[in-house]
Amino acid sequence: MEAEARGEQDLRMQIDQLRSQFPNTQDLYREVCTLLFFRHGQTPTANRLYQLVRKGSMTAPAEALAKFWSDLREKSRVRIEHPDLPLELADSAGAAIAALWVRAQELAQASLAAHAEQASAEVRAARDAAAEAQADLAAGRLETQSVRQDLTQALRERDAARDENARERQRRESLELELRAAVGEQVRLREFLDSARIEMAAELEKVRGAAALAETRFRAAEERALLEIDRERSISSKWQKELDKTRLSLGSEIESRNRQLTECQVQLAASAQKAGVLEGNVQTLRQGHAALEAKIEAMQQRWDMLTVELGLARQEAEGWKARTEESERQFMALQKEMAARKRKKAPPPA
Description:
Layout: H1 2-21, H2 25-39, H3 46-53, H4 59-76, H5 87-345
Helix pairs in contact: 1-2, 2-4, 3-4
């Protein structure tokens, strides 16, 4: 069964090769007939040919098959042509030779079948050996696959260990860097602390000196302040006496000012009344002034209109003047032309 499948596969591969060699449909069917009959020992039929080639219509393989059998019969016929040989003898000899050729073909086919059977047995043995080799190969592949899996797992574990080692190395390097940075920072802070202590001691000495100087200055200022307080006290007592005197004098002055204020209020009331009268006069004058301003504005508008009209009149006058000058020039030119014509028409002097 497997040999038939393999033979069918070889047959189809050979037909695919014939497709590129024989593009003509009838030629292709003829070559497939030859391939089936002589190489594979199969009797070609129209359906079989069409199943293998599948080209053209259903009549194409039938026509090619009929042509193949006709050519085969024609080629298998042996003709003996000789001028002195009788026709019946020639036909008998041809038939005998044809029978010999057919027998030779049968023997060749039998020998080919025996060789094919032997080859099939060898192929079966080879295939059995190949199957055993395939089984051994499959077992070896399974074992190799298992070994590869173990190796892959070992490689993964090794890579994981390497990665973990690398991470540990990075962490250690990072910690070392942090430690070095911390040591450097500690040294820097210690130096800064020493410097700050020195500066603080110097600053403390300055502060102590400044405090002593400030205390001295404070004592001197306190003494000066006490002296100033005593002086201010004496001055304050003096000014208090002067204030009492001033209060007495201001009392009489205030009474006089109050009398003057009463008189001023009376005068202010009279002035307010007079101002009311003047305000009425001013209102009247304002109304008259507004009327006058309206009249002045109307006169100004009239003046502006007259100015515009005067400008238009001046422009028109200048236009008339220009036209008049142009007319005068034309008239003078016409006079000159007429004088010239008269001079031409006048008879010459005797």
